[in-house]
Amino acid sequence: MKSKKVVKSWGLSLTMVLAVSAILSGCTTSTDTSGTSSPSPGGSSGPAASPAASTGPAKVSMLNVYLSNTAPKADGPVVKETERIANAKLDITYVPFNVYSEKLNVTMTSGEMPQTIMVENPFITSVLNGVRSGMFWDLTPYLNEFPNLKKYDQNILNNLAIDGKYYVIPRPRPLVRIGTIIRKDWLDNVGLTEPKTIDEFYNVLKAFKEKDPDKNGVNDTYGLMLYENSIPADIFAWFGAPNNWMVDKSGNFIKDVETKEYREGLTFLRKLYNENLINKNFAIVVRNEARKDLYNNKVGLSIESIDAVVPFYYLQMADTKNKYPMTVSPPINGKSYAAAGHFGGALIPKTSVKTEKELREVLRYFNTENSDEAKAEFVRISQENDKKPAAEQFNVDDLKNLITTDAIVYPTGTTDTDVLLKKRMTELAAASVQDPSMGLISPTQTEKDAQLKTLLIDARAQYIMGKIDDVGFDAAVQQWKKVGGDQVAKELSELYKKK
């Protein structure tokens, strides 16, 4: 990498993306701290080991993704503040989200890697093979030297472990981000409150279609917006379906689609479709196009990442000039699904970090970044950022994607909206159901994941739209089992029993 710090931007600018799906996937709670003093160079909140003897800025090069229209600038607040707080000099190659996987694979194949690479999912085949071939440092033996790197929620570390070892420095995320986002003015107009049960949720959708919630005298509204054939998984949680998998008394894995609770959720979704309470084009419409229905007073409810999407909608109001209050309901039926609690994290390649001395220098940066002093400072600058005019604010998501700490994974502001979002995320986390397959690596699933998912996703959409019945869906499940689903269940069971 160049000795002079440069932030490179690869590819074309993206449309703003503030909510990333997939991903998400552990258990963490944010540290709600505040403070005004900067951490001392090399500071940590545990007993200093030998690496802390170095007090100058840690020089670290990095490959990272950006989700905004443009990459954070080298001299911009996101990078400069992180350097100041973490006592570092960063050389970041930024790559847009839509081409990051390709760039990551090319970089790994070439062997010309920076000192750290940020990965969204360390369990994709290319990364997993790289880890198992010895391409990256096993950090397990070094954690005792860096006390702040042992502070992560143990569930996050377990969810990122590969073959029982820790290669990834976590990029934490909330345990649950998905919630039911509702136009508060529409709720008021139809005389309802935030739903807490399935029946109340259905009644809200029905009222949003039939009771003229926008008061324009025209029957032109509907209840729930969906897009890109993505059905919010939490709908199935409301009915008691397992989170991806369930484990029976014998330790055998059973897929969610094989349970009656999942089928009840599926039947409910088909009812919503038949009654025109969801958009008919949900399987093909892209996200940003679907969201126009909300800006244009066509729909009143969505189920998305509340901490990213609610601020995103408020941001759009400046352009659309259509302003309205929004709210988020408590966990429907008192249930939600837990994600992994992380957005991947940092891997350290041996090709660029060749010695233990160099490794300790990189780990010093991450250790300082996760100190109590640094976390308090990240909270402080985030809160100050909220108070600035919109044109002067940095994108907090860019900061979240750079730092490997849970300091700002929950909203840090003091506005009514921030307080509500943090409250709801805490409630959703408390009501969440874990996925028992987290941290278990099935070889068959790694190899056939896309094929297996596509089979079930397509069958789900066909069932909702009435193109297949229960017999047809059962046939799709049997096909899934035949092409690899049964083998995945067997492998997960074997791994689970060894834990």
What does this molecule look like?
- There is one protein chain.
- The protein is of the alpha/beta class.
- Helices cover about 40% and strands about 15% of the residues.
- The protein contains 17 helices and 14 strands.
- A hairpin with a 5-residue loop joins strand 8 and strand 9 (about 255).
- The two termini are about 40 Å apart.
Alpha-carbon distance between the two ends? 41 Å
- How would the global form be characterised? globular
Kindly estimate the percentage of residues that lie in beta strands according to DSSP.
5-15%
Task: Give the strand line-up of the largest sheet.
Answer: 1-3-2-4-13-5
Q: What is Rg?
A: 23 Å
Structure annotation, total helices: 17
Structural class computed from helices and strand pairing: alpha/beta
Task: Give a concise summary.
This protein is of the alpha/beta class. It has 17 helices and 14 strands.
Q: What topology emerges from the helices and strands here?
A:
Layout: E1 8-9, E2 58-66, H1 77-86, E3 88-96, H2 97-110, E4 116-119, H3 125-132, H4 154-160, E5 169-172, E6 178-183, H5 184-189, H6 198-210, E7 222-225, H7 234-238, E8 245-247, E9 253-255, H8 260-274, H9 287-290, H10 292-295, E10 299-305, H11 306-320, E11 326-328, E12 336-337, E13 342-347, H12 356-369, H13 372-386, H14 396-402, H15 416-430, E14 432-433, H16 443-464, H17 470-498
Helix pairs in contact: 1-13, 16-17
